[in-house]
Design a protein that fits this description.
It is built from eight helices and 14 strands. The protein has 298 residues and is α/β, with parallel strands linked by helices. The protein has one domain: Ribonuclease Z/Hydroxyacylglutathione hydrolase-like (Metallo-beta-lactamase, Chain A). The strands form two sheets. It has a seven-stranded mixed beta sheet with strand order 6-5-4-3-2-1-14. A seven-stranded mixed beta sheet has the order 7-8-9-10-11-12-13. The radius of gyration is 18 Å and the shape is globular. It binds zinc ion (ZN) (2 copies). The site of one zinc ion has 6 residues, from helix 3.
C-alpha cells in the first residue's frame, strides 16, 4: 500500500494567509517547510487512488504528485474519498473536483457527516449521479471494485469522540467524526485519525495496533490559540484533544506503538519548531510530525 501525505496542516495551512505567528513567519522566511491542509492519498497498486479527506488545497496537491494526475486528455485516477468529518478544511476540495465531467466518485463518510455536508450547495452534487455518497458509520465496509478503495484494500470505520463543525453547531454526536483503518492485502494497517476530541479506549487500541498511524496533532496545549494571540478558542472547544499535558493524546497513547505521525497540525503548534520543548516531548513519545510530500510504502 502506498501512502502519500498530500498536506499536513490544520485549516489555513502554514503559513496561513492572515497569520504572522512565529511558525507562519518562519515558513515565510523559508526556515520551516510550508504545509498545505491535511489529507492523504492511498493506493494498493499506485494505479487507483482514494483520498482520505479532500482539502481546499487539493488542486495544488495533485500538481505536486504525478500519480494523481490525469492519464488521458480528461480523467483522474482518483476513485473516491473517505471523509472523517464535515469540516470545510477536510472536504472543501470537493468544490474543486466538481469539474469531474462523467467521472464518478464514490464517497464514504458517516451518515451524520453526509447529512451535514450535503445540506451545503457546494457539496450536495456528490450525493447524486454520477457520484455516490455512501454511509460508513461503523465496522468493516464492504470492499468491491466499485468502492473508492477498490477490492485490494479493506476499510474499517471507527467512530471517535468529536464535534460537528462550527457551521453545524459544534455538537458532540456519535458519527460527527470517524477514523479509518485501512488494511492491505498483505495485512498491514494504516490508521487515519486526524481529528478527535479525546482518545478513548478504542482509539488508543487502534493507534497501538496500526503499522502506521496518522493522528490529530492540531494543538499541543489546550490554551495555545489564546496564548499566541491567534484566537479565543480552546483546543477541545474546537474538537481537538491537545497533545501535551496529563490528559493529552501523548499520555493516552504512550510509547508502545509502531510508526506514528501527527498531522492536521495548526500553525500555532510549537512542535513545528524542531528546537522547542514541545518537539522534544513529542520525540520522547516516539511520534513524528508528518510533512507534505512524504510518501511511504506500508
Ligand atoms: Zn481541520
Ligand atoms: Zn500562524
Amino acid at each position: 500500500m502506498i501512502v502519500r501525505v498530500l498536506g499536513s496542516a490544520a485549516g489555513g495551512g502554514v503559513p496561513q494567509w492572515n497569520c504572522a505567528c512565529p511558525n507562519c513567519a518562519a515558513a515565510r522566511r523559508g526556515e520551516q517547510p510550508r504545509r498545505s491542509q491535511s489529507s492523504l492519498a492511498v493506493s494498493a497498486d499506485g494505479d487507483r487512488w482514494v483520498l482520505l479527506n479532500v482539502s481546499p488545497d487539493i488542486a495544488g496537491q495533485i500538481e505536486e504528485y504525478p500519480p494523481l494526475q490525469p492519464r488521458g486528455i480528461r480523467g483522474t485516477p482518483i476513485a473516491g474519498m473517505l471523509l472523517t468529518d464535515a469540516n470545510v478544511d477536510h472536504l472543501g476540495g470537493l468544490a474543486t473536483l466538481r469539474q469531474g465531467g462523467e467521472h464518478h466518485f464514490t464517497l464514504r463518510s458517516s451518515g451524520v457527516v453526509r447529512d451535514i455536508a450535503t445540506a451545503q450547495a457546494a457539496f450536495a452534487p456528490f450525493a447524486s449521479a454520477p457520484h455516490r455518497w455512501l454511509a460508513a458509520d461503523e465496522g468493516l465496509l464492504p470492499g468491491s471494485d466499485d468502492d473508492p478503495v477498490g477490492d485490494e484494500l479493506s476499510v474499517r470505520a471507527i467512530p471517535v469522540p468529536g464535534l460537528t463543525p462550527g457551521y453545524a453547531g459544534r455538537i458532540a454526536v456519535r458519527g460527527a467524526v470517524t477514523a479509518y483503518a485501512i488494511r492491505s492485502a498483505g495485512g498491514r494497517t494504516l490508521l487515519f485519525a486526524p481529528v478527535f476530541s479525546a482518545v478513548d479506549i478504542t482509539l488508543a487500541a487502534e493507534i497501538r495496533a496500526a503499522d502506521i498511524a496518522f493522528i490529530d496533532g492540531s494543538f499541543f496545549s489546550e490554551g495555545e490559540m489564546i496564548e499566541t494571540g491567534a484566537g479565543d478558542k480552546r483546543a477541545t472547544s474546537l474538537g481537538h484533544a491537545p497533545l501535551g499535558g496529563a490528559g493529552g493524546t501523548l499520555a493516552a497513547i504512550g510509547t508502545d506503538h509502531a510508526r506514528c505521525f501527527v498531522t492536521h497540525v495548526n500553525n500555532t503548534n510549537p512542535i513545528l519548531d524542531p528546537g522547542s520543548a514541545a518537539a522534544a516531548i513529542l520525540a520522547q513519545y516516539n511520534v513524528e510530525v508528518a510533512a507534505d510530500g512524504l510518501t511511504l510504502e506500508v
